[in-house]
Amino acid sequence: MEKGSPELGGVWKRVVVVGGGVAGSLIAKSLQFHGDVTLIDPKEYFEIPWASLRSMVEPTFAERSVIYHKDYLTNGRVIVGKAINISNSQVLTSEGHQVTYDYLVIATGHNGSFPKTRSDRLNEFQADHEEIKSADSILIVGGGPTGVELAAEIAVDFPEKKVTLVHEGSRLLEFMGPKAADKALEWLKSRRVEVKLRQSIDLNNCSEESKTFVTSSGETIRADHLLVCTGKPPGSAWLRESVLKDSIDSFGRLRVDENLRVKGCKNIFAVGDITDIKEIKQGYLAQKHALVAAKNLKVMMGGGQERKMTSYKPNFVKVIVSLGRHDAVAQFSLTTLIGLVPGLIKSKDLFVGKTRKQLGLDPRILPHY
Ligand SMILES: Cc1cc2nc3c(=O)[nH]c(=O)nc-3n(C[C@H](O)[C@H](O)[C@H](O)COP(=O)(O)OP(=O)(O)OC[C@H]3O[C@@H](n4cnc5c(N)ncnc54)[C@H](O)[C@@H]3O)c2cc1C
């Protein structure tokens, strides 16, 4: 169907997607031939978040995982900027754009700060790599999936480095069961990563220049390089003074109904980590949200009845944390596994090819940038 051609009643509905991350990119791509789609994102690219840790140790890995929005959104508009407010019919951006919508999708995930251009992001990975390479000792703060995966990447690619992982909880990977946490801990120890549990580092009162870090228990850790892998708050601060201010829960998440519309709103959807859906915040679930919301938007844009919309059912925990290039620890509904078997599912390609394919891109061959 050509842009501007009638879908129903003559005009294309205007769909504005705020946030070009895992969920926003997929929903924009899925709707681009069904409506007049505008994607608003502070970056000119979509980045596969779970590939970023590998990209820090091997910067060429980022060439497939940092993707221009225009490469998958061939029939939509991209506005590179931050949404700063919304009304019942428009989104306002930091650059002063006022973008009118018939349907709005909010997919702002978690707060993060990334360069605007793809080339700057690739340079950032290169700089991360140089810093890791030149450091003899590295301190990682945070023992969630990001800290554990990063420690494992460094331990595998740079086995000669002294890596210390400090985590304030009583075990690693608290979003998984204790069995998975124990297995990950054993694996890291077997790779000479020193793990310090129940300790924290006051990040506001430490300086990397001194190369000395004191933990909450008074232990001193010497490290040439500090990598912070602590959680980030939901990306909803910009909505606090908006028409959706009463739809934000105490955790900063948007309350959604079973069709993934913001509760009480007919034409505003929310998907991904920003939602209050009772499940762990995972990229593969954000993708599922995007597909359900896209389906529902197609029903609405086609003038279909609300009862024809699909309900989203929260999913059981299914998590795979990679441990370098071959191993992983996985928790499925009935079992926990570690080693090469779960590693075969995730660790070699980190689902980069799969994610590219889902966006309609070649999983391997790069376009000519
Ligand atoms: C290091 C790391 C490793 C991970 N590993 C895995 C894994 O192995 N498996 C897995 O399933 N999940 C993993 N996750 C979790 C997964 O990445 C998230 O669940 C997923 O990214 C959520 O998707 P989202 O679209 O909701 O948010 P995001 O992907 O975070 O996207 C949010 C987007 O919104 C944009 N944005 C924010 N504010 C604004 C604004 N005001 N205006 C416009 N745009 C805005 C951001 O720039 C970003 O592009 C990992 C996460 C990280 C950080």
UniProtKB/TrEMBL annotation:
Putative FAD-dependent oxidoreductase. GO terms for molecular function: electron-transferring-flavoprotein dehydrogenase activity; flavin adenine dinucleotide binding. Coiled coil: none annotated. It comes from Perilla frutescens var. hirtella. Gene3D superfamilies: 3.50.50.100. Residues 14-289 form the FAD/NAD(P)-binding domain. GO terms for cellular component: cytoplasm. This is Oxidoreductase family protein. PANTHER family: APOPTOSIS-INDUCING FACTOR 1, APOPTOSIS-INDUCING FACTOR HOMOLOG B-LIKE.
